[in-house]
Amino acid sequence: MDRWQFSHGTVGVNAPSWLTFEVHRPYFDGAESPLTVIQARAAILAARRFENRTPGALRFGMTMPASYRRLLVEESRLHRYRADDPTELPEELASPAWRRMAEAYRHRAELDAVDRAGLAHWLIAACLLPAVLEVVPADLDDAGCRNAVSAGLQSARAVALFGLEGLTDRTAAAYRPLVDHPAPTLTHVQSVAGWGYLLARHGGDDSAVPHHLELARSLFAGLAGELGDFQRTVIEARLALREVMYAERQQDFAGAAARLTAAQQAVDELTPPDADDAMVLLETRRRLIDRRVEMAVRLGDAEAEQLALSEGLAIDPSCVKLRMQTAQAHQRAGRPEEALAAYLHAARLGPYGTGFALLHAADCAEQTGQGEFARVLTERAFRAAPRASATRDRLVASCLAAGDEPLAEVVRQAATRDPERPYANNWHYRMHAAYFNLGESQSPGLYAKLPTLAFEFAERGTPPKVNWQRLMPPAFRTNLIRESGLTEFAVAHPAELPAELRTPAWDTLCGWVAEFATYDAERQHQVAVVLYRLGFIKLVQELIPFTPAAELTTAAELRLHHWLDVVRWVGSVGRASVVAPANSSAIVEHPACPTHLRFVIAVFSVIYEARETRSLEAALGWREIGEKALADLLADPQYSPFELMMMESRFYRSVSYVPFLQRDTVRLAADMDRAEELARAVPAIGEYQEFLRRENLRACVESRSKEFYAFGENERAHLLVAEALALDPYEPKTHIEVAEGLLKDDNPEAAAHSYLRTARLGPVSTAFGYAAAGDCFARAGQPLLAEDCYLQALRIDPYAISAARGWAAVGPANGMGELAARYLADLEAWGAARRAARTA
């Protein structure tokens, strides 16, 4: 499959969505892939049993609870695959086998008992447990369960109820017709033994367990002569698995281990009659190995444990439980690095135990001296399981240990379930709620509340004379929604957001947009700024058609259309052709253009020309216009000292592009000295002015750091980057600056830690942060950490060719070298085909 294309727009919680899909594919669409874990193949076999009308033939013995399917969808974020019955899966997503079973389910009332039993068994195998109760809506009585087919129906109902509810009265009632007066069928044998197993494992009173196990043995003995060697040996092994649970409960570990060894030896000698029975044999071996590992651990037999793990991984390399057991074995043996590798492998195979695996991986990372990597793993554990107290408490403790109470509070809030707002139980929403629905952002970063600020000014109808400078990337909201998994917020127009996701502020905004055409230019500007800050760039351009400067008449119209020029340019950055702000050049010459607007356009245009055209002549021309406008503004008594100093500081920082292009270090230093001097001296009054002062100073010292790095003054640059970080420790870009400084000092491992902080504080730079951290860890001789970082980068951006190449280079570090090489080869082939199609 085209893994990157399949994942486009979908970001798994911890692993790439395509990887979760392939490992567990039969649960999603009824098909399988080469990576499919053994237990998931139950649905493949059950569908074939249905087609062949052989419901009494051997099926897989292990079933999964209903929560498993929910976790699969939550962690993969493949929400289109959410279903409680087979008909709920869109037909275009379903495999042929799934579509056949869905058709059978639609006509379940018309099916005979054989097909109903086969359908019920498939529903259990596909983990569609609620649908089983539609096929078998009521318990049969003892007499109704006397033959194998009807007993199979009742058994399916009992198994489904346990998977949905646990050991409840309804579950017990469903088992009763099968176990109180069992008939001599294999279904009754397995149901009686299964009931004894459930009592041994989950019941408070296990006194009845020996009776059930002995009864199952007796029934089986009466049937043994009618069975072939294969069927008899497999059932024998399954009975042994049930009996081992009771032996374990009785602390008879040696007896349990001996019983398992004997069953394993018998199973290993079997030759399956056909391909379907080969699947049954494989699952039986896998279950025996699992219990052998557990008994070896109980007995402290490391050699037996390792042998069983090796056998298991050889037949089921995608099994998350085997990877977890391997990690635990390494951890007990005092091998934290090997344990870290195994826990990371387990976590990416999920979904059961993802958060648990990541927390243990974080412990191992701490033991190997990788504190920042441990923090990243703890955050990932929390995002995988935000409602688990263990992940919450560990992440809060990590935040507090770093002196980060603001982020600790975000964690506490995100861990608090709000039944009326389930989306609030999400890290990204709590951090950046303003961008989702004008909710309350709790990120302590400078830019988390920009949409809220814009909304509040629009609500008051009094735009500020001095605004913030940060232009968030056009992809910010898109990336935020993708990484959060809250795809229900991905709308192209505010009115498209479902009512249950709206805040009162959002409803107000929808009213403004509906009335937009009736507003004057000044009011349109205020509303459009809110839309822009929320990421609705295309909508802004639709609401405000381009109008040449010559057709504009008022200062408000001129301001609106210069701003539209900026929006159009920002929206085009990174594309094949950039939209030049040509209208702004004409607006400056317009008779109605006020001095302040001329100043704003000049400063912006210096930046545009320096970045996009590299024209020194054009940049110089705009600087001259800006200088004249600034002189007029500084002499204008209507502006406060705060406003004047902010304008002048921003001016010198922006126009310093000119001496930078000229390589005139003296004049560049003079411009930046003046910008910095003013930035530090700004007399801020009140919360909003303090916000602007901090933002301007942070931008100023960041620019100065680039200046010093460019001219080899690394020590001075390092100090300024540290100051920028102190002003806003939550800005991903600053952590990139820190990392780049560390690389200049040839310290790749420390740089990797800064890039990891960038990734933690995304979403703008999440994929970049992980990929860059991977490069640094690879340089530092840490291939295991590099491999995890590359895979995380591909989780966010499946098209990231440099990350794919990095993963292929270090993939063998965690047993995924072959998969990494295939991914890279397929991605390169796909990219070459795309390029060829464009040039054809």
UniProtKB/TrEMBL annotation:
Gene3D superfamilies hit by this protein: Tetratricopeptide repeat domain
InterPro entries hit by this protein: TPR-like_helical_dom_sf
Protein name: Tetratricopeptide (TPR) repeat protein
Originating organism: Kitasatospora gansuensis
